[in-house]
Sequence to fold (167 residues):
Amino acid sequence: MAGRAPRVQGIGRGARPARRPRRFGVVVARFNEEISKRLLDGALQVFRSHGSDPSQVEVHWVPGSFELPQAALHLALTGRFAALVCLGVVIRGETPHFEHVAREAAAGIREVALATGVPAAFGVVTALNEAQAWERAGGKVGNRGEEAALAALEMAEFVSRVGRRRG
Fold:
């Protein structure tokens, strides 16, 4: 889907923000740091625009996208976060390394969410070249950091709403 994600009232398609403050964790890969910072800026802007106090959003840096799942797992296991956002940039090179890192980051982040029940949003740009990565970090095709933060907010609300129905 090209272009920015549509802006909808509330968090996402029909979701409403929770009434109590919630903490969010953001894990950012340092590899391709300049682009990752743009993803982070987008994510933080979404949290601010949806009423999250900056003190309720923790940012943690890791070496690269391969390390995102391990860091996310450690954060999820603390029980402090309503959701996590994982941000990074993987750019294709001349070797199959790109495929391995991208696949393992995606699978690992998914596994964190499934194993812990803490939503872990995938905000990793996988691009064929640096220009494509910049376009996905605030360029013509949007900001994957913003999109991941929106997904985290919506999933945190979903988990909170479904959890209230138990028992």
User: Anything to note?
Assistant: DSSP finds five helices and six strands in the chain. The helical segments are 33-49, 68-77, 97-116, 130-135, 144-165.
